[in-house]
């Protein structure tokens, strides 16, 4: 019996663990972010949370009221909103001690909401826990945890899909960067951007594996997951990605087009000519159509910003494009991790640490594979810069310059993922001997980045950056469970995740090396 007969059966026996173990780690890490961040300290979370609270109580969109700039949503007893809940924003030297408790009865029973007409799917998925409590703070924390579980499921699907093939020796490293602190921070908040990013990660991995199954030349490297299961992941992640935000259908097209281009013409031809695929494609089309119809019907792409709302309102395409290129370093920093309402950057040494981990795998993919693989990785690097620049430039006259790095995070995450993908393919065979060593080093760096980054963000909220670290033991503000417990639990969970991925990298490499030896013997 050859290795190609044994490997798929062995991979199937591990497929459940390849989902549930990453799911458990990511769910814990995202939930810890949800507890560590003060309520509404995540960008636009006040708007998203109040929409979800109102929507699950029957208010599908907000109401237009005279004298109000945005739609107004009504809030139930226990959820009154006080604007001093965000008194510490944009002053990183201040702690969160001045914040008013959400629902303490001191605020308004309505919220003027700029996302009041957004696509309702995400808000139904995460808003329901608020129905079971009249304590506003508890309700939002519960919604954060539900959002974290939803995002964890999609990210776990990304891990399961990517690691389900014998050719995945570099992917444990590429995938931990996908589940980095900025992603977990957004996933563990009430904001559709987090689930959007998680769904995109699942789509990248599952669609690439599904397309590989349509290329007979890659049969030995096919995913051990059945085709219907991969289709289920592709379908659900596509629909969620398309409906997460108004630009979702465009992001879906970008990811699908990229995956088709990466796997090649042969796989694409078989993929689109097999009749049994079209029931799944029809489901995706229906979900995407709903997203487009909702956005057009609610005017989600038609609002005209005023000149005081954002820079460059009324400017042309070239002005917008040039501004986006000029701010690219800022967007890249935000994608690595700028927390709060972009008012909480990390120490520069942490950016250097994670940049080394990403840079090594990208450089190896460009220099140590074949020409086609290098072109793929370089194309993703360029696309990460140019696609957001073009999209924002097209809308600059109407919206002004409103782009943030997190909007393009689904593209940025594809850089380490696809670099690892190409290195795991036959084109990266001559660097295979480095995979375990580099993976352990890269995973260690990513783990340090995650834990120290988590501590740094907590420090900003507990005492503010204006006080020394020693002041944290006499904190101005404390999250649920206390910052000491949260940091300890986060370090424990991240260490476990890193160790599991490191052992996965070693196991996959040993399995692939054994398979290569057995195959050579079969042909000898």
Structural class: mainly alpha
Uncertain runs are 1-8, 516-524
Instruction: Name the beta content range.
Output: under 5%
Number of helices: 19
Mean pLDDT: 91
Q: Please tell me how large the radius of gyration is.
A: 23 Å
- Secondary-structure element series: HHEEHHHHHHHHHHHEEHHHHHH
The geometry reads as globular
Q: How many strand units?
A: 4
Fraction of residues in H or I helices: 55-70%
3D architecture notes:
With about 525 residues, the protein is mainly α. About 65% of the residues lie in helices and about 0% in strands. It is built from 19 helices and 4 strands. The strands form 2 sheets. A two-stranded antiparallel sheet has the order 1-2. Strands 3-4 form a two-stranded antiparallel sheet. The protein starts with a helix and ends with a helix. The relative contact order is 0.13. Mean pLDDT is about 90; it is low at about 1-10 and about 515-524.
List keywords for this structure.
524 residues; mainly alpha; two-stranded antiparallel sheet; 19 helices; globular; disordered N terminus; disordered C terminus
Task: Give a short overview.
By secondary structure, this protein is an all-alpha fold. It has 19 helices and four strands. The chain has a two-stranded antiparallel ribbon. The chain has a two-stranded antiparallel ribbon with strand order 3-4.
Which helices and strands, and how do they pair?
Blueprint: H1 3-36, H2 45-55, E1 71-74, E2 110-113, H3 121-127, H4 136-163, H5 171-178, H6 181-187, H7 192-212, H8 227-244, H9 248-263, H10 265-273, H11 278-297, H12 317-326, H13 328-337, E3 338-339, E4 344-345, H14 348-367, H15 371-399, H16 409-412, H17 414-424, H18 435-462, H19 483-523
Antiparallel strand pairs: 1-2, 3-4
